[in-house]
Structure formats: structure tokens, C-alpha cells
Amino acid sequence: MPLQSSVRASKKPLRLDDEVRFLRSWMEKPLHMGAVMPSGRLLARTMAQYVDPEAEGPVIELGPGTGAITNALIEHGVDQKRLVLVEYNPGFCALLRERYPQAKVVQGDAYRLRDTLWDVMKSPASAVVSGLPLVTKPMLTRLKLIRDAFIALAPGAPFVQFTYSVAPPIPKSLPGVSTEASERIWMNLPPARVWVYRKG
To answer: Domains, the chain, ranges and CATH?
Structure first.
């Protein structure tokens, strides 16, 4: 094979590599994955817009996978040093450490958030951004997750979650919690919506 063809063949698009990684992980453990493919750029940007890049405190991302939403957060102006990336899959953790060397990558279970972050957090978080497959979990598990997230968050800071479901991933009627939702993002595959929860 000519050298030029060899170089061209070795430069596969990064997005395609990420899609292959996601698909392989989903096939191995479908209920651990929030999606079959990485989040689309429009969905990732929509999630990032709810995070204040000037706020103090870390930004926690749950289930970053290959970093689609992580990229959007950085493009939105969030300093990589403020990112705490909580990922269950060890292969994705290795990839995230390579791609985001200044971020704090924590290999652990986001559904046991207090245990996972107990020795990591030094100050309240300014946002929690989640790509977890909440709708595949029992409602009590979802409520425990958001309760633990609110313990880690500064008052009024957002818990940002996307879902492909038409229904909200967490009920809108939680006492003392305000809820807002984006328009449905039809350009994402599958279409998705972003939900934002804040506790005063």
C-alpha cells in the first residue's frame, strides 16, 4: 500500500471511532449505557448552555462516555480543570484521561454518587450534567441520584439531564425543586429533550 494511502487509512474520523466504542459497550451492557451512540452536537451544546462557565466550583459530569458533552462544556467556556468526570466504564475512563488531562476522571458508580465523590469534592459543585440512562432505572434509584446530586450542588445550581423519553426522567412535582425543559431536539438521533432541576 502506498505511504499516502496508509496515512489516510490511519486517520479515521474521531466521531466514527467513538460511535464504534459506544456500540461495542452498549452491546456488552445495554442497561449501563445512556445511549447507543454518543450525544449529538446540538444536544451536547443544549446541555452545556445551562452551565454557567463563570460560576465557582467544580462541574460534575455523570456518564461522560467518550466526551461528547465534555467537549461542549469546554467549548461553552468551562475550564477543563473544573471538570469532575464520573464514568463507570474503565475503557472510557482511560480515553477521557487521555483527551482531558486537566480534568479529574473518577472511575465509579454515579448511582452511588456520595460514595463515589466523598474524597473528591472540596467545594460545592456549580452544576451536575448527566448522560445517565435514568429512564432504565426504578424511580427510587432516580430520586436517590438527584437527592445525592443536590447534596453535592451549591444552592440553586442546576442538575442537567437529557432523555429520549417524552416523559420527564424525574417527576416535575418534587417539593422545593424547580423544573424546566428545553424544546425537543429533533436533529438528535433519537430525538431528545434536556431537563433542568434546581433546588433553592
So the answer is: 16-24+36-199 (3.40.50.150)
**Residue 68 burial (CB < 10 Å; 0-12/13-18/19+)?**
buried
Amino acid (1-letter code) at residue 45? R
Contact at 8 Å (CB) between 134 and 62? no
Q: Which three cell numbers stand for residue 192?
A: 431528545
d(CA 131, CA 26): 14
Q: What is the largest CA-CA distance in the chain?
A: 66
Q: How far apart are CA 65 and CA 86, in angstroms?
A: 9
Given the C-alpha cell 472511575, which residue does it identify? Answer: 107
Backbone angles phi, psi at 64, to 5 degrees: -70, -20
Backbone angles phi, psi at 32, to 5 degrees: -90, -10
Q: How many other C-beta atoms lie within 10 A of the C-beta of residue 17?
A: 12
Angular region, 193: left φ>0, alpha ψ -120 to 50, beta rest = beta
- Please write the tens of the pLDDT for every residue from 152-192: 999 999 999 999 999 999 999 899 999 999 999 998 888 99
The rounded radius of gyration (Å) of the Cα atoms in the chain is: 17
How far apart are the C-alpha atoms of 4 and 151, rounded to whole Å?
55
Q: What is the pTM of this model?
A: 0.82
